[in-house]
Amino acid sequence: AFDTRFTLVAPTGTGGGGSGAYRFSGAGRGGKEGLDEMMRKYPNWFSPHLHEFRGHADRLPFDQHALIALVAPRAFIALEGTFDGVSLPSAVAAALGGARPVFALLGVEDQLGANFAAHSHQYAPDDWRALLDFADWRLRGHDCGRRFPLAPYPSAPAKIAP
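-> structure tokens emitted (162 positions)
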């Protein structure tokens, strides 16, 4: 998040420990992997301090939206599948919605985007097209003829609670 050598950050199919907000991920929230599942399956991937919140994602002092917000003012696009039960689209939308105020405060709200393609947990050709279109638009100023909404569906969560 702090490495300014990266002008564009583009995580794709990030899974239960990726772009999606933990408060909106996992069993009981419509997805297969959330904080609890990640701590059980991949305990070595995360800080030992995160284990304290297993079973208590609602008590996290921050969520994935904070990490995404740290990328601003640089460009960020999440590339996810609408049928991905691991990178739950509604959890990704919640994290992006939570990061949006930081991008807006810095006057770079257009630097934040998402592409939700019709696929499962994978990096598909549509993700490549979206990444290249977003890069052309944000880094080269070329109008690619599309925008990159932060939510895959109108009913996706737009806010994340502190």
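DSSP finds four helices and three strands in the chain.
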